[in-house]
Amino acid sequence: MSDSTTTSPDLTQVHNSIPEPHIVEHMAQVFGILADPGRIRILTALSNGPLKVRDIAGATHQSQSSVSHSLRLLRAHHVVTVTRIGREAFYTLEDRHVQSLLELTLTHVAHEDHNH
């Protein structure tokens, strides 16, 4: 764009705004974890409140085995947590930032879909 009123930001400021490499790596891992449609369905279901594996499987149309595998990965990365009550295990979103990311992404996709 050749708008003469547009000025480039100070490159030192740009450089300083980029997180440290280990933070960038961790951010990429979080996005990688979220980059699976099945896990997005699981997280969206959990945004409604605590659920058991069989309920998540039913709501997301996935096998209980697939849901369990995804939940293990999500637990390992502190995205979901499990609470055991007797023999029942209830999963919940551990980090509300993930719910915010899901909501923002859904808003973005809906906006993009509406404009195309």
What is the average of the pLDDT values? 91
Q: If helices are DSSP runs of H or I spanning 4 or more residues, what is the number of helices?
A: 6
How many independent structural domains? 1
Number of strands: 2
Helix content: 55-70%
Q: In one word, what is the shape? A: elongated
CATH architecture: Orthogonal Bundle
Radius of gyration: 19 Å
The level-1 CATH class: Mainly Alpha
Low-pLDDT segments, ≥5 res: none
The CATH superfamily appears as Winged helix-like DNA-binding domain superfamily/Winged helix DNA-binding domain
Order of helices and strands: HHHHHEEH
Distance between the termini: 23 Å
Tell me what you see in this structure.
- Strands 1-2 form a two-stranded antiparallel ribbon.
- The protein has one domain (21-114): Winged helix-like DNA-binding domain superfamily/Winged helix DNA-binding domain (Arc Repressor Mutant, subunit A), CATH 1.10.10.
- Helix content is 62%, strand content 10%.
- With 116 residues, the protein is mainly α.
- The protein has helices at residues 11-17, 21-34, 37-46, 53-60, 64-76, 96-115; strands spanning 80-85, 88-93.
- The mean pLDDT is 91.
Short descriptors:
116 residues; two-stranded antiparallel sheet; mainly alpha; 2 strands; Arc Repressor Mutant, subunit A
Would you spell out the secondary-structure blueprint of this structure?
Blueprint (H helix, E strand, L loop, with lengths): L10 H7 L3 H14 L2 H10 L6 H8 L3 H13 L3 E6 L2 E6 L2 H20 L1
Antiparallel strand pairs: 1-2
Helix pairs in contact: 3-4, 4-5
